[in-house]
Structure formats: structure tokens, C-alpha cells
Amino acid sequence: MARRGLGRLGGFCARHPAAVIAVWLLVLVSALAGRHLAAPTFSDQVSLPGTASHTGADLLAASMPEAGRPGGKVVFHTDFCRTSLTSPRP
Q1: Which burial class, exposed, middle or buried, applies to 46 when counting CB atoms under 10 A from its CB (0-12, 13-18, 19+)?
Q2: Which of 22, 47, 54, 77 sits at a 20 to 30 Å CA gap from 69?
Q3: Residue 8 confidence (pLDDT) above 70
């Protein structure tokens, strides 16, 4: 039975590991270079004047400025963790 598709690809990758790693590194470098060329910085500043959400944000900023600031807290919980993630290690 002839090998098809992923079997052939896997066989090639197994026979040529250096070439596969080189191609992945080239893809990674190209992606990072493209990201810097397309959008060198990220921004979360969005303005949609005339919308209900913009009006609400303006009202919130005028009445309670501290409530209009972006922020959040992420809490992780597990039954398997015996020490706090923020406590110093022994």
C-alpha cells in the first residue's frame, strides 16, 4: 500500500530533521519580521464616537473616573496546589 498525505510528510520529517528545523526557524523569523513591518506597536486605545458605548464610557469617566480605567484580576484555583503562587519558596 502506498503511503499518502501525513505519512509521507512524517517520513520526510524523520529523514531530514535538520531541514525541517531550518524551515521552522525560517517561518518563525519571517513571522516576527512581518509582525514588525505590519504593526510595530500594539494599542488598546479604541474610539467609536457617536455610539452608545462611547456615550456610556464618557458618562462613567465623568462620574467615576476610577471605574473607567481598564483593569482586571486573574485568579487561578486548583485543588492540587499546596502552596500559594505568590508566597516565597522555602
Answers
A1: exposed
A2: 77
A3: yes
